[in-house]
Design goal:
The complex is a heterodimer of chains A (about 230) and B (about 180). Chain A has helices at about 5-15, 20-25, 35-45, 50-65, 75-85, 100-115, 125-130, 135-145, 150-160, 170-180, 195-205, 215-230, and strands at about 1-5, 30-35, 65-70, 90, 95, 120, 150, 165-170. Chain A has about 230 residues and is of the alpha/beta class. Chain B has helices at about 5-20, 25-30, 35-40, 45-65, 75-85, 90-110, 115-130, 135-145, 150-155, 170-180. The chains are: A alpha/beta (about 230), B mainly alpha (about 180). Chains A and B meet through helix 1, helix 3, helix 7, helix 8 and strand 8 of A and helix 3, helix 8, helix 9 and helix 10 of B.
Chain lengths: ~230, ~180
């Protein structure tokens, strides 16, 4: 099984010192990023002072072969084609609203191109365009205080390309790590230790950029605790 | 420059001049959001720059007031920008925009207000606003010239993600369990 990571979950996991989860999860799973994501999570921060150590941690994982880098011209070409489509789905004031960026589209294109269709993405706008574009249209209309037109023809083209794509977030990834006992070394003698541990990692990824609401965290905690007792 | 963008920037500059004279930094900060709609839709440098500039000015004003320093030159520069744009002299307007951003940096040198940091924060703040309006994180980071690390760190501490989009957490968890079964 191969999972394609967007930049977001790599950033959320690294800033929470949870990147090691990728090494600890079953060996039958391979984790990959596209080259433009590598630029954002390794090359760019390495050239600055802030987040340099975090970039080194990601680079270490790449050098160990635990995180593969995909640099496939065919995926890039497909990504460019569908980036253009994605960025002409929504219109306001007779102008297309460019909502997503090449790196995000390249991750999706790689997942489709490899036939895995599995993406880990913390970013909510690209996710929503794939899963619930009508919700996204409503959000944009509310926020922009203007009528946002959806080009259904373009949307159908985009949907045809992404229809098999499935997305999870870093939040679900850490929940799986919790389920598999990978986080048990952090259990301490406090009341409701397991619940506290799970909440702590979920809030950690949320506060470092994973798009998950407080209500969804409560839902994941409830489901995990129910799973443990049931 | 799009006509809608030009009109909105002129309107913002008119208000910015008045607010700068009144030394109301909170109102300036709020005003910087008024061009975010244009910045999100048209994603042009002019809308993005004016949003960042007005927000940075609000911080300059706030810190000057906290230190008891009067910085008078900005009002005149804002007026020049307004007049150039009103006369359709876009090149002159953009040159004056660069001047005012340089002036903001000079305030840093004179008063040690860490304005360079303020400009960086202004970019992150405005990027988060655009993300809130429906533009992806990577796209806003690209438009504002900030890193996704910086932007995620900032956005994670806001309430932007309290608004749910996409499939439910339960559906995602079931999906993840299937993947890692």
């Amino acid at each position: 099984m191969s999972l394609i990571f967007d930049a977001g979950p790599i950033i959320s996991l690294t800033t929470n010192n949870l990147l090691w989860i990728l090494e600890a999860l079953p060996a039958k799973t391979t984790f990959s990023i596209v080259s433009s994501v590598k630029r954002e999570v390794v090359d760019r921060p390495l050239a600055t002072k802030k987040f340099k150590f975090e970039a080194l941690q990601v680079e270490r994982l790449i050098e160990q072969g635990k995180l593969l880098v995909i640099d496939e011209p065919a995926f890039k070409s497909k990504a460019l084609q569908f980036l253009d489509i994605a960025n002409t789905v929504f219109w306001a004031h007779q102008a297309p609203i460019k909502i997503i960026q090449l790196g995000e589209m390249e991750s999706v294109a790689a997942a489709v191109g490899l036939g895995t269709h599995r993406v880990v993405m913390d970013e909510r706008i690209t996710r929503s365009l794939i899963e619930t574009p009508e919700q996204l249209q409503r959000l944009m209309e509310q926020r922009l205080h203007t009528k946002v037109h959806m080009d259904t023809g373009r949307l159908e083209e985009f949907r045809a390309f992404t229809r098999h794509v499935e997305i999870i977030r870093s939040a679900e990834l850490v929940a799986i790590a919790y389920e598999k006992g990978l986080l048990d070394k952090f259990l301490v003698k406090v009341p409701n230790a397991r619940k506290e541990l799970l909440e702590s990692v979920l809030w950690g990824v949320k506060l470092n950029g994973c798009s998950i609401s407080e209500q969804e965290i409560a839902e994941l905690v409830r489901l995990e605790l129910k799973n443990a007792t049931g | 420059m799009q006509d809608t963008v030009r009109k909105d920037i002129l309107n913002v500059l008119e208000q910015a001049i008045t607010i700068w004279e009144a030394q109301d930094y909170q109102a300036l900060g709020e005003l910087s959001n008024h061009v975010i709609h244009d910045a999100s839709i048209f994603q042009d440098d002019d809308s993005v720059s004016v949003a960042v500039m007005v927000y940075a000015l609000s911080k300059v004003l706030q810190r000057c007031r906290e230190q008891g320093v009067v910085y008078a030159n900005m009002g005149a520069l804002l007026q020049q920008m307004h007049d150039s744009l009103a006369a359709d002299k876009e090149d002159a307007y953009r040159g004056q925009m660069r001047t005012i951003l340089d002036e903001i940096k000079k305030v840093d040198d004179k008063l040690k207000l860490y304005i360079t940091e303020v400009l960086e924060k202004a970019r992150v703040k405005k990027a988060s606003k655009m993300h809130e309006h429906g533009i992806s994180l990577a796209r806003t980071a690209e438009l504002l010239g900030v890193s996704q690390w910086e932007l995620q760190d900032y956005i994670g501490k806001t309430r932007i993600h309290e608004e749910h989009l996409g499939v439910s957490a339960q559906a995602r968890l079931l999906r993840a369990r299937k993947w890692f079964a």
